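Assess this one:
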Amino acid sequence: MACFFGRRETVCGTLDYLPPEMVMHKKHDATVDIWSLGIMLYEFLVGRPPFEAKEQNETFAKIAACIIHYPLDVAIPDGAKDLIGKLVRKDPSERLPLVNVLTHSWIKEVLAPQQIAAGDSGSVQTCELSATTETAKHCGKKC
């Protein structure tokens, strides 16, 4: 497994999941994955990505504007909308850190019944990444 730290300039990925900094060809970091998590969550709940458009340039413009609209014909819990809003932020520094996703009220509400039904009384183990020391602590494993 290779570990990479710092900011990147390459653009790769599925168009609908690219964050504003990538479509605007700016440097980016690991927070692009937080953005993509929010996009996937939206797609799981709605059935399509939030910035989908017929033309690529239209999709780029919607991503750059970063305005999420929820369809009226789909019931989306307020907690899910709150989480998506904290993940899909134009400013990467404002995106909810991954470790905080696990403690978001909607995630805890959704996971609790499943954990209880499965007899799991434990908690979810989290991992930390330290780009300043260029070491990753991934559940006890070093890169």
